[in-house]
Design goal:
This protein is an alpha+beta fold. Helix content is 25%, strand content 30%. Helix 1 (20-35) packs antiparallel against helix 2, helix 2 packs antiparallel against helix 3 and helix 4 crosses helix 5.
Length: 334
């Protein structure tokens, strides 16, 4: 099995606006599966699952997209189908072979469930549906309570954002870095910052920020957000337009912005703030490619989502298409 590409996890989006997009989704999923280190028949199985999910979007959904990316905190591939309606009245029934509302054989979601290592469905009538299928070569349960997207600006071949989450001994540390502007120069800054994070991710957050500043001095610079969650509490350190929001089913309870500055150019003294993310709550770290207004009054549909699905919903419903967009969510452990 080839080594997984964990250095630069970027989300590919396939918009399902025509039946021809179903074949494209399958091809992209197969290619991403290989890059994620899936061996044997698993890339072909990933393509089959992507084809089923995309086909369902084409038949039943409005404004549907398929997100294809590495699994956060694990080796393997994640496929997330997301749409804006009409939703499923009974998601579990839709997994039953033979159940159909479109006059077909009715094996789509059941087939995806058989292929996937893990399958999650969240649906709300009439707001829409999210289906996340994770495919891994490793037996046993996958890590829970984490989700991520990292999407390039519309029309760009490279992503000027980078995002990563790491876990060690029950401590999760996340990074969102937004290279100034977009395109190749922004991607170069984000990629350099991501390498520094992977090399120093266990250091104090303020020290990581200082190391990032030193590394990005000869780039156009970046906005950076760092989040660390452990049983002892949650820490946040950010510079520029990377924000933190803490949610639970009742609403948004804590919002924090990064300090003014540009990492690599004019770094203020790094300041780490503490907050509480209790069980049942979710912390969301996101770049300004995700509209900030979602966090001021989150919709009930967003508040009900588990951490694994929340970033995909934000990337689909609240993304600025002309900018790179990243979001990471972590479920509370305190």
């Amino acid at each position: 099995m080839s080594a997984p590409d964990v250095r630069r996890p970027v989300t590919e989006e396939v918009r399902i606006d025509h039946y021809s997009a179903v074949h494209l989704a399958a091809t992209r999923a197969r290619d991403m599966g290989v890059r994620c280190g899936l061996g044997g028949s698993l890339p072909d199985q990933a393509a089959a699952a992507a084809s089923e999910l995309a086909g369902n979007l084409d038949k039943h959904a409005r404004a549907g997209s398929l997100f294809i990316q590495p699994i956060p905190l694990a080796d393997g591939l994640e496929l997330i189908a997301v749409d804006r309606g009409p939703g499923m009245a009974d998601p579990r029934r839709c997994l039953t072979d033979g159940y159909t509302t479109a006059g077909t054989l009715g094996t789509g979601l059941g087939a995806v469930e058989r292929i996937a290592t893990e399958l999650r469905i969240s649906s709300r009538v009439p707001d829409g549906t999210l289906v996340a299928a994770r495919i891994s070569a490793h037996p046993g349960p996958l890590p829970t309570g984490a989700g991520m997207v990292c999407l390039p600006a519309e029309g760009e071949d490279e992503c000027g954002d980078a995002a990563a989450v790491h876990e060690d001994a029950g401590v999760r540390t996340a990074l969102v870095i937004d290279g100034l502007g977009h395109g190749e120069a922004a991607a170069r800054a984000a990629g350099r910052g991501l390498r520094v994070f992977h090399d120093h991710r266990d250091e104090p957050l303020s020290q990581i920020m200082s190391l990032l500043h030193h590394a990005l001095r000869h780039t156009r610079g970046a906005a950076v957000g760092l989040l660390r969650m452990s049983p002892a509490g949650t820490e946040f350190c950010a510079v520029g337009n990377v924000r933190l929001c803490v949610l639970d089913p009742q609403g948004a309870h804590s919002r924090m912005d990064g300090r003014p500055g540009i990492v690599g150019w004019n770094l203020p003294t790094p300041h780490t703030r503490r907050t509480t993310v209790a069980r049942g709550q979710t912390a969301v770290l996101f770049s300004d490619g995700i509209e900030a207004r979602w966090a001021r009054d989150p919709s009930p549909a967003l508040l009900e989502l588990p951490a694994a699905l929340l970033p995909a919903a934000l990337g689909h419903r609240h993304r600025r298409l002309r900018d790179d967009a990243s979001a990471i969510s972590l479920a509370g452990v305190a």
